[in-house]
Amino acid sequence: MKAIILAGGYGTRLQRDLQSDHNGPYKHLLGMPKALLPIGHLPLISHWMKVLESVDFIDQTFVLCNDFYLKQFEHWLKDWPGVTLISDGTTSNENRIGAIGGINLVVEEGNIQDDIMVIGGDTLFYGDFKLANILTEFQEHKSKEAEASLVLGCQCTEEETSRFGILEIDPVSCRVTAFLEKPGPEITKSRTSCPCFYIFSKHSLPLLRNFLQENKDGPLKNRDATGHFVHYLFSRQPVFVHNVSSRFDVGALSSYVECHKYFLEQDQSTS
Fold it and tell me: Which of 38, 47, 197, 219 has its CA 20 to 30 A from that of 128?
């Protein structure tokens, strides 16, 4: 299995927050990509590297970045020489290729023909996230249905449904029956959000290319939100759900502060 960490975004919302708070305690984060933000005592992406190193299933890790932040990632890479860094070649939010295009770029440049684990470079999880358990569950589904993929589900509040991609799930099989992109709470009874952490079967990789071809003339947002591919996939191949309690989505300064504080407290409790 190959791991792909998506770090090609520009963090425009967070950068706006930091510019508005330029005299505050986090002004040193200006100009830093979200995946390299200090969370606790490590860059966000390094937390993922430690998690990936703890399991035997992952034989290669790719990090997708952009040209604008490339030098910062090259500096980070000195501590992780086994990682393959790929830039999407873009220099601004306006000419970005989108997250789904980024996944496909890594698949093609890395000549990947295996199952892939896709991780949002601005996402972390609470302590009940156990990668070994998730991988075991994926293997169990795969043994029964070779094309099976696995995504995570997190409970959200009624007010949060319009902020996230929402999964509807068969309660017996835990198979995805619908994916709704930021629906109003009146549209669905589900309160299960779908964070950017997926294990896609190698059989889904041709569908990734098909999706991009079918949406090449559509708005970029259709190729940017990774949930759009989950929506495309679940009606074509089986997609199952592993539930975790909650996640950190480091998109704004307030969510960064919350995540940073949590991991500082975790570090202190284990020291």
Answer: 38
CA distance 139 to 67: 36
What pTM value is reported for the model? 0.96
Q: Rounded CA gap, 110 and 92, in Å? A: 24
In this structure, what is the dihedral angle of CA atoms 152, 155, 157, 160, given to the nearest 10 degrees? -10
Tokens 């984060």 -> residue: 29
Backbone angles phi, psi at 81, to 5 degrees: -65, -15
pLDDT tens, 238-269? 999 999 999 999 999 999 999 999 999 987 77
**Rounded to an integer, what distance in angstroms lies between the CA atom of residue 130 and that of residue 60?**
19
Check: CB of residue 158 under 8 Å from CB of residue 132: no
Q: Please report where in the chains the tokens 């075991």 appear, as a residue.
A: 136
Tokens coding 30: 């200006």
Torsion of Cα atoms, 12 then 15 then 20 then 24, to 10°: 160
Cα 8–chain centre separation: 11
Is the distance from CB of 121 to CB of 7 less than 8 angstroms?
yes
Alpha carbon distance 54, 133 (integer Å): 12
Confidence of residue 271 (pLDDT cuts 50, 70, 90): low
Please give the C-alpha separations between residue 124 and each of 91, 139, 156, 196, in angstroms, as whole numbers. 26, 23, 16, 10
